[in-house]
Specification:
- With 445 residues, the chain is an alpha/beta fold.
- 37% of the residues lie in helices and 25% in strands.
- Helix 1 (20-31) packs across helix 12 and helix 4 runs parallel beside helix 5.
- The chain is elongated and about 85 Å long.
- It binds NADPH dihydro-nicotinamide-adenine-dinucleotide phosphate and L-homoserine.
- Residues 17-22, 50-53, 56, 69, 71, 86-88, 92, 110-111, 137, 141, 194-195, 197-198, 310-311, 315 line the site of NADPH dihydro-nicotinamide-adenine-dinucleotide phosphate.
């Protein structure tokens, strides 16, 4: 797009939120503005940013007059064209987003929790008011997964999408594995690096990655899946025992989102849980804050995308890419091939899809039990497994002489959630089993 300097339109951008991501966007838009203006053929003006605490010290310097503690004034400012919602949470963010869309502004967001809970309403609002809602930064940080899924891979249907969608968990698991540290030892570093959500449970209990899985499932399959209908487990209970034994067996532990669709039965399954994955797979080498997404399309085959899944700069890159799309839209460029406003495209994708229940999951399993170290304990446990029809693939015992206890680690041949659930209930009741039994799934793609 070519325009001479004087005829260039000025596009005004308002940021709701000036935290980790907001400051990243401000920093890079300021530093790289002329290159971006050149590419887009417009002038870009960072109009204002909203914060909750005006007195807080900021890493990115900005004139005081540019900050406000009233985000509604940005939404209501008729001169602002693009609003970036980088506040997080769902209550205020939803109101501000809907108000901005109703005012005809384009909204750019990194807020996966909001999209997961209110995506349907927000997309409909954008549609109704003839504007757009862009959300590339909401899934997998800097990886352009949404563009890839909707545009680059538009020829495909997706029987399998799986991957690592939470940078914080992956960072913690990687350091536990490399340094032999505990979960608690590392979480503080993840906070300091700006990876962790304000509500830490989102990262540590799997909800953040589940939100992202819901968004990907909608984009690939046209169906909004409710979190209550999904299996969602986080990484808090993983110990060095699990990591070490997984390694001995040739696996690594990763927090995985798994989205499968069987196109014959038209059943969709979306789940999120830590899993043992073969160490030889490329996905197992996706470490630290990186995310990895494997997309198996019926035309392209399998494609793996890897990149930084969290943090200021990677996320700012995705937000600025959406700002660029928003500028194109404001200049009258045709909409992308598929966008969130294409209700009919998504209705068609999701036609007749049935949601599989978490109890339908079939897998091999990893089981950890802490037991009293006394005669007959192992026999009793294997008896329960045998009666439940669970076939043992491997077993190892670690004795803890000081507490006269032992940790038993099993892997099983293929079983299913229902059988394993019943098995755990029975094992838990045994007097010789000390702590609640701990279970992980083994995922082989
Ligand atoms: P932060 O907590 O760092 O920033 C939130 C910002 O919103 C802060 O500037 C805060 O103000 C401001 N804010 C909060 N409440 C209000 C309010 N009531 N009125 C005005 N301002 C308010 O969060 P992040 O930047 O990390 O995350 C922002 C969004 O981006 C979230 O949706 C998150 O899930 C998403 N995201 C984050 C990534 C990351 O790596 N951090 C990666 C991808 C997505 P103040 O500074 O004064 O406290
Ligand atoms: N807290 C999120 C993560 C930020 O760790 O992945 C990126 O969405």
């Amino acid at each position: 797009m070519v325009a001479n300097q004087s005829s260039k339109r000025t596009i005004k951008i308002g940021l709701l939120g000036f935290g980790v991501v907001g400051q990243g966007v401000w920093k890079h838009l300021t530093a790289d503005r002329s290159a971006l203006e050149q590419r887009l053929g417009v002038k870009l003006e960072l109009a204002r940013a909203a914060v909750s605490d005006l007195s807080k010290k900021r890493d990115v310097r900005v004139a005081k007059s540019k900050l406000t503690d009233d985000p509604q004034t940005i939404v209501d400012d008729p001169s602002i064209d693009i609003v970036c919602e980088l506040i997080g949470g769902t209550k205020l963010a939803r109101k501000l987003t809907l108000d901005a869309l109703k005012a005809g502004k384009i909204v750019v967001s990194a807020n996966k929790a909001l999209i997961c809970d209110y995506g349907e309403e927000i997309f409909a609002c954008a549609r109704k008011h003839g504007t757009h809602y862009f959300f590339e930064a909401s899934v997998a940080g800097g990886i352009p997964i949404i563009k890839t899924l909707r545009e680059g891979l538009v020829a495909n249907r997706f029987p399998l999408i799986y991957g690592i969608l939470n940078g914080t968990s992956n960072y913690i698991l990687t350091r536990m594995e490399r340094e032999g540290l505990s979960f608690e030892d590392i979480v503080g570093d993840a906070r300091a690096l700006g990876y962790v959500e304000a509500d830490e449970s989102l990262d540590l209990d799997g909800w953040d990655a589940a939100h992202k899985a819901v968004i990907l499932a909608y984009l690939a399959h046209g169906r909004w899946v409710k979190l209550k209908d999904m299996l969602v487990e986080g990484i808090r209970d993983i110990t060095q025992h699990d990591i070490t034994y997984a390694r001995e067996l040739g696996y690594k532990i990763k927090l995985l989102a798994v989205i499968t669709r069987d196109f014959d039965s038209n059943r969709l399954s979306v789940r999120l849980h830590p899993a043992l994955i073969p160490a030889r797979e490329m996905m197992a080498s996706v470490d630290e804050v990186f995310n990895g997404i494997s997309l198996t399309g019926d035309v392209v085959g399998t494609t793996l995308l890897v990149g930084r899944g969290a943090g200021q700069d990677a996320t700012a890159s995705a937000v600025i890419s959406d700002i660029a799309d928003a500028v194109h839209a404001l200049l009258g460029a045709p909409a992308p091939i598929i966008c969130e406003e294409d209700a009919e495209v998504y209705a068609d994708l999701g036609a007749g899809v049935e949601l599989a229940s978490p109890s339908d999951i079939h897998a091999s399993y990893y089981l950890r039990l802490r037991v009293k170290d006394q005669p007959g304990v192992l026999a009793k446990i294997t008896e329960v497994l045998s009666e439940q029809g669970v076939s043992i693939a491997s077993m190892i015992q670690h004795e803890e002489l000081s507490s006269r206890s032992a940790t038993l680690l099993f892997t099983t041949h293929e079983s299913n959630e229902h059988v394993m659930g019943e098995t755990l209930k029975r094992l838990k009741k045994l007097k010789t089993v000390i702590d609640a039994p701990f279970l992980l799934r083994i995922f082989e793609s």
